[in-house]
Amino acid sequence: MPDNTPDLLFGTFSTPVAQPPHQAVDLAIVADRAGLDLVTFQDHPYQSAFYDTWTLLSYVAARTERVHLAGNVHNLPLRPPAVLARSAASLDRLSGGRVELGLGAGAFWEGIAAMGGRRLSPGEAVEALEEAIQIIRAIWDTSTRGGVRVEGTYYTVRGAKRGPAPAHDIGIWLGAYKPRMLRLTGRIADGWLPSLGYLSGGPADLAAMNRQIDEGAAQAGRDPAAIRRMLNIGGQFAAERRGFLAGPPRQWAEELADLWFTHRISAFILAVDDPYTIELFAGEVAPATRELAAAGATS
Amino acid sequence: MNYGHPLHFGTFLTPRSDEPEAVVDLAQRSEALGYDLVTFQDHPYQPQLLDTWTLLGWVAGRTDRIRLAANVLNLPLRPPSVLARAAASLDVLSGGRLQLGLGAGAFWPAIAAMGGERRAPGEAVAALEEAIDVIREMLEGTGKTVRYQGDHYRLAGAQGGPLPAHDIPLWVGAMKPRMLRLIGRKADGWVATLSYLQPGQLAEGNRLIDAAAQRAGRDPREIRRILNISGRFAADRAGFLDGPPEVWVEDLLPLVVDEGVGTFILMIDDAGTIERFAREVAPVLRAAAEAAVPGAFAGPAPRRTSARAKRRQGIDYDGLPPSLRETAIEPGDIGYTRVKSTYMRGGAPGLVLQPGNTGEVVEALAFARAQTDVPLAIRSGGHGVSGRSTNDGGIVIDLARLHAIEVLDEANRLVRVEPGARWMDVATALAPYGWALTSGDYGGVGVGGLATAGGIGWLARQHGLTIDHIRAVEMVLADGTVVRARDEEHSDLFWAVRGAGANFGIVTSFEFTVDVVGNLGWAQFVFDASDTAGLLERWGQAIEASPRDVTSEILLGRPRTGQPLLAQAMVTVANDSPETIISRLQPIATIAPLYDQRIVITPYAALMANAPEGYHTGQGEPVAHSGLIAHITPAFAADAARLIRSGATYFFQMRSVGGAVADVPPDATAYANRAANFQVVAFGASRRRLDPLWDELRGQFDGMYLSFETDRSVERLHDAFPPPTLRRLRTLKARYDPDNVFRDNFNIAPLTLVD
Ligand SMILES: Cc1cc2nc3c(=O)[nH]c(=O)nc-3n(C[C@H](O)[C@H](O)[C@H](O)COP(=O)(O)OP(=O)(O)OC[C@H]3O[C@@H](n4cnc5c(N)ncnc54)[C@H](O)[C@@H]3O)c2cc1C
What we know:
The complex is a heterodimer of chains A (299) and B (755). Chain A has 9 helices and 13 strands. By secondary structure, chain A is an alpha/beta fold. Chain A has a single domain, classed as TIM Barrel (Alpha-Beta Barrel). In chain A, helix 1 (23-34) packs parallel to helix 9 and helix 8 (249-263) packs across helix 9. The longest helix of chain A is centred in the C-terminal third of the chain and has 24 residues, at 275-298. With 755 residues, chain B is of the alpha/beta class. Chain B has 3 domains: 8-292, Luciferase-like domain (TIM Barrel), CATH 3.20.20.30; 310-515, Uridine Diphospho-n-acetylenolpyruvylglucosamine Reductase, domain 3, CATH 3.30.465; 520-602 and 623-709, 3-Layer(aba) Sandwich (Vanillyl-alcohol Oxidase, Chain A, domain 3). Chain B starts with 7 loop residues before the first strand and ends with a helix. In chain B, a hairpin with a 5-residue loop joins strand 20 (470-476) and strand 21. Helix content of chain B is 34%, strand content 21%. An 8-stranded parallel barrel of chain B has the order 1-2-3-5-8-9-10-13, surrounded by 5 helices. Chain B has a 7-stranded antiparallel β-sheet with strand order 27-24-26-25-29-30-28. The interface between A and B is large, with 57 and 58 residues. The site of flavin-adenine dinucleotide has 38 residues of chain B, from strand 15, helix 15 and strand 22.
């Protein structure tokens, strides 16, 4: 393959239901065996029908071989950042470098407060997220000497020891929609992970959001290409075209390749709860999308 | 001093972060060596160590049997609400292997450095107590709303759940009196480290815990004593736990016998020592303890006082035979949520017995009969509609553990199936042989309830009822005798079991002759049901005109304003040739305008794999009426359409019978209404609305299939059984169950009681 072949990722976003007990695990194993790149789970610690996502990820990591794993995205207000950083580094070491960290500022404040979490305004939550990322990165950074010191408004860490170092450079991906979060993503994150379903204008919204990320990156003197643009998608396979991502695998591939060309989306994470769809996505959509993207890149 | 817990052994492995494989490997070795438990310390401020919770999740994924615990978790850095959710998750994922070890926290500067709250010792104990309260409530499972106003933790209506797989014991690591008293009040285990204890401190600790437990109205035996130990193997004794294995046994035995230690955890990372302890100390110590105090370690631990408080009146819980005790579930047990209700009904039984073999069924029945005036329910798959397989305050004999399926005679296609199996399991087990046994349309239904009543399934017209395939049953009668009934022995009982089995005993195994069944054609049609009566009538005609390889059901829901009324018809064609399938489906597909259709060629087992895993969460009481009818006449179709259009039924269904079902003479089994071509059922939200409309239909029926009828009045017995059948059933009931023990499903009063 030519060098400029885009590095596209394909993954799953399965519901972490606790009933039936092995559904989420089995789907992850299917994704792993089918050759997908990523398995992700939403994280809503106040949701009683779901597994605790960190626990599920740890278990699933032990049951899979190759696939990378991430929360999509973790609820920061209920997960103290210094502990989360060490947990992520630990799982990364245990799994041979297969963990990425999806983070969200928090939403559903009712649920968070019900669990004993602190209620923040959206603006405060973005600031708290920035502080948390600072702490997480500092804990992972064992090349700097001395303890971690972050005297934030929301989080204070005074002299916590650094480490363990993750086995690989764990990507921090943010579920961002609003300008402030998008600029934060551009400034300090490694990836952007929104859900297509939340974009009121559909894929067309991606352009303006991408621009805000780029601005954030520029402000921080970063290369905008350093931030991977990812997308949670939903869809249906059908014999004939029925709509966007509703049709045969070939149609999906064309639409996803188009998202790459038009919006630089390079990771497609499918909301899926059945093995058959995972296999089609991995077996037919992923290779065809890669081919189209490569052909477009060389032509 | 002894608390009666079976002796357990565990390891305590250092979760070094620089060599994660090493600790995982030792955990797996611990399992292979037969340790009961593997534990890890938790110091989240310490980067030389892996995050313990993450490691527990990972190790759960890499082991199968061994129990897992932190020794002990650092509470100040782990908010209890999230921890509880995580604990429940890990317990479910690991198949019930988690023990939750908690600590109040130490090393406060390090905790504060991580952003944790710095607590004075007294505060830390108070916070731990609050955390235990919160965790216990969260672990009660989905449906529990937790509100908590503590000094350290505040929950504003958190939802409990998920429900753990087992009753996760909460252990607390402690040395000081305040903590020990807390353990006595609230915990399930005391974790101590021998090297930190002064001589006499173990006995003193036990005394404090026991006294606090008693003050709280608890039984000290509820609390397991767990001791972390370390030592060294050497050729000769050089000190305490320093010497050959005999020395270890000699040193540890008094701790078991005199100090009541129930669990020893070896704090050593050396693989050789871990192995030697497992092979040469643990079994010898177990035997020595048993010899020193015979029978003292029989377990299980007594139920928690808080659980005992939920017991119901009239049941002699403590009189349960030992064979049933371990698996029995009481209202205060964590597993109760999983067994209290059925698919269609909410329940609140006082005791659910889960016998694992016929002998235990006999014991369970004897126990249940000895509890006078306590309702009794028999349950297999829990899908009873007529069958009240749960109750309020009574006993349920739940046969879920009796679920074996085995081929007895391959040449004659004879299989043995236990009642707790579900029909989807039966279909899956028979598939590799190219066989199938027609059952019902839903894979979650249990064998026991369906195969004692009828069994109208996807292959009914081709292969008859499920009961028509029974060759023999083993059953436990009301007086506790176990009999085998078949044509050649207990033939009258065998006759009765096939249609009215629930009245005569508990079937513990069925022998069936099954059929060779290839792939099937299966279609799902969605019809426009605007012309409701016409549609029903034409469906009936099309089915009657079809050959026997066609079996079908049609289903209508409640009409919704602004939306067309739809009907869903499912059709099986017992043939795998596409041409035949299409030609069979053609006349059915044309009975009304089609909205949607799906046609597949599929194995029977795939058709039956249509029920989710998990437990029943039924609520309230279903209302359903049932009838059998020869033909869908215009008059009947019109009345049925009126019922459907009224909205009084949310589920109206007709299934085809006839065909092979009608080949069996009416007097051959207790299921006698063989001439009918259709079975009809309507579920409603209330009898008040459903009954008047159903009564319009009633006169047109030719009998009734009891499984879908919830009305318990005596007249319904006459609908279900024609006079000669009912007379014979009553006579037999007087013989086999004169005290009317079995009455939860379409009760036939014994002749003696009626007259
Ligand atoms: C969703 C659904 C679909 C259904 N589909 C069909 C269908 O297609 N065809 C059909 O024929 N029926 C069907 N039924 C009805 C079903 O066959 C009966 O409700 C049957 O009793 C359920 O069996 P079970 O073992 O699951 O029920 P349970 O609730 O466990 O038992 C019901 C009753 O059966 C008796 N019983 C249970 N086990 C034994 C035993 N081992 N020995 C003696 N008596 C016992 C008890 O009296 C008990 O009250 C369906 C029911 C449901 C809820």
